[in-house]
Amino acid sequence: MKMQFIKSATKPSEYPEGFKYEVALVGRSNSGKSSLINALAQQRVAKVSSMPGKTTLLNFFDAGDYYRLVDMPGYGFAQRSHGDQKGWRNVVETYLATRELLAGLVLVMDIRRDWSEDERDLLSWIAPRGLPVALVLNKGDKLSKSQVTKRRTLLKEESGLDMIWMTSALKRSGVEELEESIFDLWIKPRIR
Length: 192
Ligand SMILES: Nc1nc2c(ncn2[C@@H]2O[C@H](COP(=O)(O)OP(=O)(O)OP(=O)(O)O)[C@@H](O)[C@H]2O)c(=O)[nH]1
Ligand SMILES: [Mg+2]
What we know:
Elements: E1 3-9, E2 21-27, H1 33-41, E3 58-63, E4 67-71, H2 82-98, E5 102-110, H3 117-126, E6 133-138, H4 145-159, E7 164-166, H5 175-187
The structure holds guanosine-5'-triphosphate and magnesium ion.
The site of guanosine-5'-triphosphate has 23 residues, from α1.
C-alpha cells in the first residue's frame, strides 16, 4: 500500500492540514506500532528500536488517498524521566481528546503481555469520545499457533473488545487484513 510520511507534531498547530480522517496507533512502548506502519508501507518509513520509547512525537502518515495513520509514542516506558512523562501525556492526550478527524483507535499489544491497568485506563479515558477501538495482538511470530489462539481468547475476554486482529509486523502477516478492516469499517462509511 502507498504509505507516506507527512510530518511529526507535538501540538495542534503542527498537525497536518486538510480534511482526512485519522486512525491512531496507541499502546505500550515496544509493542510494535511503528513496525506495523513499516510492514504496511513495505519500507522503513517509521523509526523502530528494540529500546522502548523510540517514538517521541506524533508521526502522521498518509495511508493511501483516504486517511492517515498516526504513530504515537507508547506508554508504560518507565525509564522516561518525570518531566518527559508529563510531556508525553500532554502530547498524546491533547491529540486523542481534541482531534476532530480522529475516526478510530488501534490499540497495539504484544500478544505475550497481559491486559493491564494501563490499557484499562486508556480505554476508560477515551470512552467519552465514543470512538471505535480495535485490538491488535502483534508479535504472533513469537508464539505457536495454539498459543496464539489461547492468548486471543483470553485477551478478548479481558479487554471486552470485539474487534481483534492478530499480526506479525516481522513476518508481515495479518497487516493487509488490518488495513482493509480499518478502511472498510471506519473510513469507507464516512467518505462519499
Ligand atoms: N518478533 C517480532 N518483533 C517485533 C514485531 N513487531 C515489532 N517487533 C520488534 O519490537 C521492537 C519494538 O518495535 P517498535 O515498532 O519500535 O515498537 P513501538 O510500539 O513503536 O515502540 P515505541 O515507539 O517505543 O512506542 C523492535 O525491536 C521491533 O523489531 C513482530 O511482529 N515480531
Ligand atoms: Mg514507535
